Amino acid sequence: MVVRPPGARTGLLLARADGERQEAAVGDQTAGRVGFFLRVDDFESTHRRLVDAGVEFVKPPRTEPYGRVAVFRDIAGNPWDLLGPA
Predict the structure, then answer these.
(1) Are 68 and 83 in contact (CB under 8 A)?
(2) Whole-prediction pTM
(3) 64 vs 85: CA distance, rounded Å
(4) Beta carbons within 10 angstroms of residue 82's beta carbon
(5) What is the pLDDT of residues 76-85, one digit of tens each?
């Protein structure tokens, strides 16, 4: 399945694991490191919506030189960075 914002040309392909080897890697595709990034224009409201929806945040929001960031896990256990402007 490909997901993309309305009107966008670029999307993200979501595929099911094919076989035992791939199934064993689900949730650990990046060996515990953040390997996926969700950049948003409004960090605070997006973070609030995700928390309200029950998304598991592993680290609280913090400010870095490049902007606001918080680490969360997707439904498979993969860590993501939620990124927004400073």
Answers:
(1) yes
(2) 0.75
(3) 10
(4) 20
(5) 888 999 999 9
